[in-house]
Automatic annotation (TrEMBL), chain A:
Pfam hit, one: ETF
Protein name: Probable electron transfer flavoprotein subunit beta
Residue ranges occupied by any Electron transfer flavoprotein alpha/beta-subunit N-terminal domain in the UniProt entry: 26-221
Lineage: Eukaryota, Fungi, Fungi incertae sedis, Mucoromycota, Glomeromycotina
Organism expressing this protein natively: Gigaspora rosea
Complexes and interactors: Heterodimer of an alpha and a beta subunit.
From TrEMBL, chain B:
Entry GO MF terms: D-lactate dehydrogenase (cytochrome) activity; FAD binding
Full protein name: D-lactate dehydrogenase (cytochrome)
Alphabetic keyword roster: FAD, Flavoprotein, Oxidoreductase
Keyword Membrane: no
Catalytic activity: (R)-lactate + 2 Fe(III)-[cytochrome c] = 2 Fe(II)-[cytochrome c] + pyruvate + 2 H(+)
Domain named FAD-binding PCMH-type: residues: 74-253
Keyword Lipid biosynthesis: no
EC assignment: 1.1.2.4
Cofactor(s) needed: FAD
Matching PROSITE patterns: FAD_PCMH (PS51387)
Main EC class the enzyme belongs to: oxidoreductase
Length: 258, 513
């Protein structure tokens, strides 16, 4: 059984339960004073890496590295990943002002640079972030690295250098075979992430955390896309109640539906 | 028998015995009028048809929902539910009922735990469900004025959008009405931080038993002019009037919230963790709850949400919540606290929620304990105020006495303890295969011994209702109980407001002065 060194991507996003609001300038969603957490699909990615280590053993899974590209507060998400069981963390720091403009292509390039430094043979990312729903970073990274990719994974099996991944697709489930090194992106049903327990949370504080900037990595993260405006969807107009079938038919007719 | 073998209980409404039959010593007051067609015609003339549920062949199930309580222990025989939308309508209805001597049961969300919200005989149910308008909110003084039928969770959601929150939080928040909360002086999980409704209610609008509207909907924090009559209605359980409007002091919603669940090896450690949390978390502590391993097993067996809760080998668990305005400040305090209690061996292990979803998941374990008990069998809930050092000894004593009587295991399935440690309030559930006076008598005499010895209360927060009406005379000095009776007579000389409850199994005459 060959060794596995796993790199897992983490993104700081607005918490899934928060009711999101558009800012007054209609240029973006309001993020100030709003609860942020680890992207749920990334949490699943960390959980999967840890389960691989528990299943295959520490002799096979040599190291799990959690990486994030974001502002200084993103370190909170790295601490969550370390508390769940990652061995060390890498923070690619981006300023608060440029974070909203950091796009999947930029992130993919930063991750490629980290891959070239750390030489993992498995990269697990969440299938998409719940803020932009882009679902691009994993695919772009695989393209830049020229590695195979298995996206929307709901089951992962590793045997030596071979990978068998079941993917959730529109038609049902598709199982594909691949080889390491590979990029995998996680879907919801892959696993249920664990809670972080106190002893692990305390151990996590002593785990190494290295910082880089995009300049350190020689990566240009200039955005290629510009967001012009962000608006709420149109408010739903109220319906009306009818008292009888005849009434329903006449209302449908006057609405041009019949 | 272990908790794995618990038979799940599904009782149909029709199988619930009428309360009037179970409590056969209660007699219907012959002075009360029986509902007649004339009365129904009158109500139909002052209320729209959708505000009335009149007994008929087609609406038995709907009527049953009002006649049966959440515990599925009490069942009334009301033939009429009225659902007024305005205070004026309530006044009209009550005035009429007082003149005709028709008995009334005020009902909010029908989530009460002592049988106080359902009729015994044919009392008319006045439901507050249509009194659901939020009237006014002032963000500077943080005061909210609303109708009494507003659901607690809906009020909290409304305040959330305005940077505020309700100063109380209870498991039934998705169903209970704020009027009912006030009428029962509800406590809940945030009591340790915000205190009692006696402090946070700034004003009330009440329809008195003769139909008079008492409007004291003030928003003033301070007003020392005269006797504070509104305090009488808080905790009066619908016996002095119907609350139609509430003015309450909301709190600022926390910018930073943390939830941790700890595993502990003894109740003494639970107490020590609580003391340490007061010392080190102090002003940011917003909840401190506990439950025992049996409560956890009950939730894991009967409800889905605890499936991935990883701690299960500890005899006790404590849920700590902190709330404050500065995340870094609160996290530092919480880290220091957790390191301290781990180092001292007070806490063996724990979980800190990493996002809102995990916080909800941890809370759902504590909030699910009563529901889980109901699914496991016939559930009897006890709600006791007692000094913290002896709190769990009651549970241990009850179990030991049931074992000595050969009742523990069969028919008693489980006895578990949980509750608001911070307020000295124990909840104890006895889960049995079926109702048994022998078990109840043994349990209650054991509890009485402890509360008498330590001057505790047999109803910390659930109130008296019907189930605990026997305790009033033993809980308070005769002088006080006599004053209560006199006040009841002043407000309600015909005794139509929620009769047969609150005062101990009284025949109607003895209420008169």
């Amino acid at each position: 059984m060959s060794n596995l060194k796993i790199l897992v991507g983490c993104k700081r996003v607005i918490d899934f339960t928060v009711k999101v609001r558009v800012n007054a300038q209609k240029t973006a969603v309001e993020t100030a004073n709003v609860k942020h957490s680890l992207n749920p699909f990334d949490e699943i990615a960390i959980e999967e890496a840890i389960r691989l280590k528990e299943k295959l053993g520490g002799d096979v899974v040599k190291e799990i590295i959690a990486v994030t590209c974001g502002p200084s507060k993103s370190q909170e998400q790295l601490r969550t990943a370390l508390a769940m069981g990652a061995d060390r963390a890498i923070h690619v720091e981006v300023s608060d002002e440029s974070y909203p403009k950091l796009q999947p292509l930029g992130v993919a390039k930063l991750l490629k640079a980290i891959v070239e430094k750390e030489k993992p043979n498995l990269v697990i990312l969440g299938k998409q972030a719940i803020d932009d729903d882009a679902s691009q970073t994993g695919q772009m990274l695989a393209g830049l690295l020229n590695w195979p990719q298995a996206t929307f994974a709901s089951k992962i099996d590793i045997n030596g250098e071979s990978l068998k991944v079941t993917r959730e697709v529109d038609g049902g489930l598709e199982t594909i075979g691949s080889k390491l090194p590979s990029v995998i992106t996680t879907d919801l049903r892959l696993n249920e992430p664990r809670f972080a327990t106190l002893p692990n949370i305390m151990k996590a504080r002593k785990k190494p955390l290295t910082k880089f900037t995009p300049q350190d990595l020689n990566v240009d993260i200039t955005p290629r896309l510009e967001t012009i405006s962000v608006t709420d969807p149109p408010t739903r107009k109220g319906g009306g109640k009818v008292d009888s079938v005849d009434d329903l038919i006449s209302k449908l007719k006057s609405a041009g539906a019949l | 028998m272990t908790t794995k073998d618990i038979p799940k209980k599904n009782i149909s409404n029709e199988e619930i015995r009428f309360t009037a039959d179970v409590h056969s010593n209660l007699k219907r007051n012959p002075n009360f009028k029986k509902l007649s067609q004339d009365d129904i015609l009158y109500f139909q003339s002052i209320l729209p048809s959708n505000a009335l549920t009149i007994e008929s062949d087609s609406n038995q199930e709907e009527l049953m929902a009002y006649n049966v309580d959440w515990l599925r222990i009490h069942r009334g025989k009301s033939k009429l539910v009225v659902k007024p939308k305005t205070t004026a309508q309530v006044s009209n209805i009550v005035k009429y009922c007082n003149e005709k001597k028709l008995a009334i049961v005020p009902q909010g969300g029908n989530t009460g735990l002592v049988g106080g919200s359902t009729p015994i005989f044919d009392e008319i149910i006045i439901s507050t469900k249509n009194l659901n308008q939020i009237r006014e909110f002032d963000p500077i003084s943080s005061t909210l004025i609303c109708d009494s039928g507003c659901i607690l969770e809906i009020l909290d959601d409304y305040l959330a959008e305005r940077g505020h929150m309700m100063p109380l939080d209870i498991g039934s928040k998705g169903s209970c009405h704020i009027g009912g909360n006030v009428a029962t002086n509800a406590g809940g999980v945030r009591y340790v931080r915000y205190g009692s409704l006696h402090g946070t209610i700034l004003g009330l609008e009440v329809v008195l038993p003769d139909g008079t509207i008492l409007d004291n909907l003030s928003t003033l924090r301070k007003d020392n002019t005269g006797y504070d009559i509104k305090q009488l209605f808080i905790g009066s359980e619908g016996t002095l009037g119907i609350i139609t409007g509430v003015s309450i002091l909301a709190s600022r919603r926390h910018k930073a919230i943390s939830v941790a669940v700890l595993g502990l090896n003894s109740f003494e450690n639970v107490q020590n963790a609580f003391i340490t949390s007061k010392e080190m978390l102090t002003e940011i502590l917003s909840a401190f709850e506990f439950w025992d391993d049996k409560s956890l097993k009950m939730v894991k067996t009967h409800l889905d949400q605890s499936a991935k809760f990883p701690l299960d080998e500890y005899p006790f668990y404590a849920l700590i919540e902190t709330g404050g305005s500065n995340k870094d400040h609160d996290e530092e305090k919480l880290s220091e606290f957790l390191e301290t209690v781990m180092e001292k061996g007070i806490v063996k292990n724990g979980i800190i929620a990493q996002d809102n979803t995990q916080m909800k998941s941890l809370w759902s374990i504590r909030e699910g304990i009563p529901d889980a008990g109901m699914k496991a069998g016939s559930a009897y809930f006890y709600d006791i105020s007692i000094p913290i050092p002896v709190m769990y000894k009651i549970v241990e004593d009850v179990i030991s006495k049931l074992k000595n009587a050969g009742l523990y295991g069969k028919p008693v399935i489980d006895v578990h303890g949980f509750g608001h440690v911070g307020d000295g309030n124990l909840h104890m559930s006895i889960i049995t295969e079926s109702y048994s006076p022998k078990i109840i008598n043994l349990v209650e005499s054991c509890i009485n011994e402890w509360t008498e010895k330590y001057k505790g209360s047999l109803s910390a927060e659930h109130g008296i209702g019907l189930m605990k009406s026997k305790i009033l005379e033993n809980s308070k000095p005769k002088v006080m109980v006599d004053i209560m009776r006199k006040m009841k007579y002043i407000f309600d000389p015909n005794g139509i407001m929620n009769p047969y409850k609150f005062f101990p199994y009284q025949k109607y005459e003895e209420l008169k002065v």
